[in-house]
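COMPLEX REQUEST
Ligand: flavin mononucleotide
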Amino acid sequence: MNDRQLCVGLSLAVTWFSGNAWRRNDSHVEDILNPTYYINIAKLAEKAHVDFLFRPDSLFVDPKALSHSVGFCALEPTLLMAAIAPHTSHIGLLTTASTTFNEPYIIARQLQSLHHISHGRAAWNIVTALDGHQNFGLPHMPDVGIRYAKAKEFAMAVKKLWRSFPHEALTIDRNEGKFVTSELITTPDVRGDYFSVKGPLSVPMHDSGEVPLFQAGASEEGRDFAAQIADGIFAACPDIDSAKSYRDDVRARMQKYQRNPNKVKVLPGLSLYLAASEEQAKALYLESQSSLDINRKNQFICDSLGIDITQLTEETEICASLIGPLPDHVRSRTHSELLRRLVKRETLTLAELRKRPEVSASAHWQIVGTVEQAADEIIEWFEKDAIDGFIALPGGSEESLKLVCEKLLPLLAERGYFRRQYTHTTLRGHLSE
Ligand SMILES: Cc1cc2nc3c(=O)[nH]c(=O)nc-3n(C[C@H](O)[C@H](O)[C@H](O)COP(=O)(O)O)c2cc1C
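STATUS: Structure written out below.
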């Protein structure tokens, strides 16, 4: 067995319904709001000893995009994880909550409640959010600097609230009539630039310890924030070099904050279009690509490169000299910078550019092939210290999802890179392996 083991999350963002895939006759797309559908996936993932299930989130939907794709038509992620918890026993439950549109007390309480409901398996993916301002009385998305300043204050307040009611304070002495030892409960009284919260929290900390924190967002501010607080990072890394330099960078920053770099797992999203042969996998990939997404892709290219592509033909070559300054209003600098990096490195036609993961797959790593090919590539990235694991985003069909759980993970286990059984019952335990 290899010394280091892969850490593997499975996304419940129903990526296997993306593009045209939801339209397949064998898709269970009608079940996307049915908790039993996710409970069955959770059981499949738990059988494969996956570290955690993960649900990203958005507090905004675009009806035009929904007219032809599933997008973010979804159950609220923390409630979904709470529905899954009683039907599982080992798998971690990573939910997403934005620090831009919430209050620390509410999130601290929800997360700590999920921690109890799941017996210590909850985790929080901290996002500063891509959009949604219109649903919270704001004229536009706050500037990224402000979003991260808020995120830092928010996360610190949540941690203080969790610690305000330690598990040991729960005394429950019937004879003495003493429910808690109130001297052990503290009042954090946080007064920051963005949040004021007195505490204590109404839910005691679960006896398994603190809820692990994950982060997504790779700008300077995002990396620095992750280096200070994250146990895990959901990353967008379309190639091995970007993954390696990102992981090296975050690990170096952690040392600056006196944190052990081995305490963070850098986990790129990994789109997996799997089939019995490479040809079948390629066909699955092509079949799932929806031509209706073209306007969204064009908009992303225009915004990220700071150029107008509306007059260009499919064959126009997009090269570094065409790139304009990065506009202030981009949704995510992480994704825009990854596209700019690609264009600076390679000259591609507009048609080719649209097919690259930087445009077509939220800049996630993509493998289109057989289970064996996927295992080889994952092991290569892992051996070259580019990743600590990955968050699986199965694509094309539900069969890809099944292949990830029933074939790919067992193969990685057989090769000594992934656990053959759970040795812990909490996510913090899995992350410590
Ligand atoms: C890989 C990745 C996943 C993300 N997932 C979410 C998400 O689920 N929900 C959300 O509102 N924002 C999400 N974001 C947005 C980030 O939280 C952040 O607001 C955005 O990327 C801007 O920060 P940045 O400049 O550091 O990238 C994600 C970003 C990245 C890079």
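REMARKS: The first strand starts at residue 7 and ends at 11. Residues 7-280+364-431 form a domain with the TIM Barrel fold (CATH 3.20.20.30).
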